[in-house]
Design brief:
It is built from twelve helices and eight strands. The chain is α/β, with parallel strands linked by helices. It has two domains: about 180 residues, 3-Layer(aba) Sandwich (Rossmann fold), CATH 3.40.50; about 120 residues, Rossmann fold, CATH 3.40.50. The strands form two sheets. A four-stranded parallel sheet has the order 2-1-3-4, with helices on both faces. A four-stranded parallel sheet has the order 6-5-7-8. The relative contact order is 0.12.
């Protein structure tokens, strides 16, 4: 699966870059009262990591992201000169790893800086190369990234270490409603059968004890951009027409004619469809707000 993802990242289809300024306010003074240091340029390759950087860095950072287009397939991204400049200017960079954003290796290598800090989420988690790449859907991931970011910012801006620690505490507090909602859904719906078009939110549904009935080979084929076996397609369709699942979790960001057909089949058979995305949609201000909205939608679907 990883090799397929890497191939798609290097594919011929280029998507337009939109740099997301998550914290563009330049303070007249740092939280510690010093005006000597300008805000730090930081980069989260994916916009949910940029959001984390902005929340923890606060007024001491200017955060940007690369993968943030809600209508684009992150796996098909190709870097541009504009992207290269943002990477070159950044003193702290977060990459997901696991083959999801391999294009960053070349960009980071082309603009080496001895004082730049690169946080690789795969390395923080100790994840293997063949796991589900969408690790930000694991409730345990973002707190670990927050720890790494706080330490990195304190290294880059020591005089504001206490400020970063306080900001991290606020970030973690904002995650508590998500964890409470996950626990609530698990208590009510453990074992509830669901279907996926693609295994985007698998870590999240595992945390809630939901049972994914979609054939793994079907999800892997969709993610790698290949055609699922006819038998797997038939099984997926039967889950919906036979009302064997309580909801269909549908990747709203990366679609294909087949996934659209599956979604329409669910709608016509009154099986609730819960859209999930790979980056924070523009309608949401933070990672927490986005994830909580998706959890609310899933809970409503399961309640039906």
């Amino acid at each position: 699966m990883v090799s397929a993802l890497a191939t798609r990242v290097l594919g011929r289809v280029a998507i337009a870059i939109a740099l997301l300024a998550l914290s563009a306010c330049v303070p007249t003074a740092s939280p510690a009262g010093s005006t000597a240091n300008a805000p730090i340029a930081v980069l989260g390759t994916e916009n949910f990591y940029a959001d984390l950087l902005a929340q923890i860095g606060g007024t001491r950072v200017i955060a940007s992201s690369i993968l943030n287009d809600p209508a684009a397939d992150p796996h098909e991204y190709e870097a541009s000169p504009a992207t290269a400049k943002v990477v070159a200017d950044s003193k702290l960079v977060i990459v997901n790893g696991i083959g999801y954003d391999d294009f960053m290796e070349k960009l980071l290598g082309a603009s080496t800086k001895p004082d730049r800090v690169v946080i690789n989420v795969q390395e923080i988690l100790g994840a293997k190369d063949d796991v589900n790449v969408h690790v930000w859907y694991d409730p345990a991931t973002m707190p670990k990234v927050a720890d790494a970011v706080t330490a990195a910012l304190a290294r880059l801006d020591p005089q504001n270490a206490a400020y970063f620690s306080a900001q991290k505490a606020k970030y973690l507090d904002a995650l508590k409603p998500l964890n409470d909602k996950i626990a609530s859904i698990k208590a009510k719906y453990t074992g509830a059968p669901i279907a996926f078009t693609e295994n985007v939110a698998g870590y999240l549904t595992d945390a809630m004890g939901l049972k994914v009935l979609t054939p793994p080979a079907f999800m892997e084929a969709i993610e790698s951009g290949t055609d699922p076996a006819p038998a797997d397609v038939a099984t997926e369709r039967d889950l919906i027409t036979g009302h064997k699942v309580k909801a269909l979790l549908y990747n709203s960001q990366v679609t294909s004619p087949l996934t659209e057909q599956i979604r329409e089949l669910a709608v016509s058979n009154n099986v609730p469809v819960v859209p999930v995305a790979e980056t924070i949609p523009p309608a949401f201000k933070t990672f927490q707000e986005w994830q909580l909205a998706q959890l609310d939608d899933l809970e409503k679907a399961l309640a039906k």
